[in-house]
Amino acid sequence: MSVSPTVGATPGDDLTMAKRRRRLFSLGGWELSLLVLLIIVTTSFGLGVPGFFDNLSGFLAMTSNFLPFGIVALGLSLVIFTGGIDLSVGATASLAAVVAAQLWATMGLNIWVASLLGLAMGGLLGGINAAVIVLLRIEPLIATLATSFIYTSAAVAVAGDSPPSGFPDAFNNMGSGAMAWGSFQFPYQLLIFIPLAVLFWLLVTRSAFGRKLVTVGYNSEAARYSGIRVPRVLAAAYVISGMMAALAGLVLSAYYSAARADMGDVLLLTTIAMVVLGGVSIFGGEGRMGGVIVAVLLLGLLRQGMLIAGFSDMVTSMLTGAILIGSIAIRNIFSTRVGGFGKRLLALIRRPAIAGPDATRHDAP
């Protein structure tokens, strides 16, 4: 049975819709490069490192060791899209998780109700960051660095001498459990991360809010003159970032079956590296969420493969820092925005030719 064209549609309309569908599922050159690199890394470790890929269930279970970083990276990418930064994500994760754990341990709240309050705490902490930045006009780097110290101290105070532990098995499964179909197991962390990744991808690429994020990051003054409420966009980005950090803290609590005040300390460097490696410009206004998602898998699997191969955690951390520097340098060199090699090359190509001495002259009569 054939499908008839839409009534009133023209060939041009059909072509436009086809272009939109292709654009919806397209990846740029940077993202495709990351995808190829992900395939190479996975294949190399799978063939050369025993234990990296024994079976599909074990391979998927390995993602539970790094997906909390990916959850934070999804929220942090929104902030970096605006040209800002959130250095308090680790402290936010710790404080939100400790508060939720104490509500369960000391007040007897249901663990899931306490977790929802922990998510709300993360949004509140993100809102505080936005208020400091917008109302007090403090640079995001300084503002979130200061609040990270405050949130960390609060987490230590709330956790006390004996941090809560021993959560119910149903909660612990969120961090270390898996859904089983016979012998095949699918980690619950992946069940959390995949819908979130799709949601954030659609939010950035297919919504008015995503367009506002990019516009604010590219030129906040132009965004303000075009009618965009810049403070509201910034507040939403930091609140979402805080909630994603809180969710990551809850997942880590479930993974360890304990909530510690220093639990989120490891999140910051790796998540920034994931966002920047994914192609989001540290200056804001450029990048694709698809690249961030691929970078989460690339850095996570690279780190796990090196650990299984016998490299120390110190070496993997050094490699993460080197990747962060390298990715920013490469993006800046070929950027047409920040005065890098790409901008100078375009200027050279577009420079009009200067007439030489043999050029024909047309003197006035």
Structural class: mainly alpha
Strand coverage percent: under 5%
Q: Largest beta sheet: what is the strand line-up?
A: 1-2
- Classify the fold: give the CATH topology: ABC transporter involved in vitamin B12 uptake, BtuC
Distance between the termini: 76 Å
Task: Using the 3D structure, state the CATH architecture.
Answer: Orthogonal Bundle
Q: Mind telling me the CATH class?
A: Mainly Alpha
Note the run of SSEs as H and E.
Answer: HHHHHHHHEEHHHHHHHH
Number of β-strand runs: 2
Q: What percent of the residues sit in helical stretches (DSSP H or I)?
A: 55-70%
Which term fits the overall shape? globular
The total count of helices amounts to: 16
**Major pleated sheet:** 2 strands, antiparallel
Number of domains: 1
Rg measurement, Å: 24 Å
- What integer is the average pLDDT? 86
Report the uncertain regions.
1-25, 358-365
